[in-house]
Amino acid sequence: PKITYIESNGKTHEIEVKTGNSVMEGAIKHNIPGIDADCGGACACATCHVYVDAEWFDKTGGPSVMEESMLDFAQDVEPTSRLSCQIRVTEALDGLIVRLPESQH
Ligand code: FES
Predict the structure, then answer these.
(1) Is the CB of residue 4 less than 8 Å from the CB of residue 94?
(2) Which of 4, 28, 62, 105 is most buried as measured by Cβ atoms within 10 A of its Cβ?
(3) What is the pLDDT of residues 6-35, one digit of tens each?
(4) Residue 15: DSSP 8-state
(5) Residues with Cβ within 6 A of ligand 1?
(6) Domains, in order of start, for the chain
(7) Which numbered atom of ligand 1 lies nearest the CA of 70?
């Protein structure tokens, strides 16, 4: 599935990410700046914060309770904020668009 990552400066990366990988892993593997992922995907650092495009938010399933509480530690949280290590890539997410927050740049 193709995922589009948009950096805070507007630079856009359209990447083919493997099914089963997280949106965070897709970014790290392709060296996309703006996702730090300090904890390596354990939902324990909030440095993989992204803004999911509003049209896609429902399709990603929304954050779990654990993710919600970790999001409290992210900066500039918005209604469509997610931790990208907690979004699994599936065929249904082909075309997903996420924006990367300025604070992680
Ligand atoms: Fe740490 Fe996502 S990588 S919370």
Answers:
(1) no
(2) 28
(3) 999 999 999 999 999 999 999 999 999 999
(4) E
(5) 24, 37-39, 41-48, 70, 83, 85
(6) 2-85 (3.10.20.30)
(7) 4
CB distance 3 to 91 below 8 Å: no
pTM: 0.96
Q: Which of 36, 47, 60, 77 to mutate to test the pocket of ligand 1 (most atoms within 8 A of CB)?
A: 47
| Distance between CA atoms of residues 50 and 53, nearest Å | 9
User: Are the C-beta atoms of residues 96 and 1 closer than 8 Å to each other?
Assistant: yes
85 token code pair: 């290590």
Sheet containing 2-6: give its strands across: 12-16, 2-6, 96-99, 49-52, 81-83
- Which letter does DSSP use for residue 22 in this model? B
pLDDT tens by residue, 55-88: 999 999 999 999 999 999 999 999 999 999 999 9
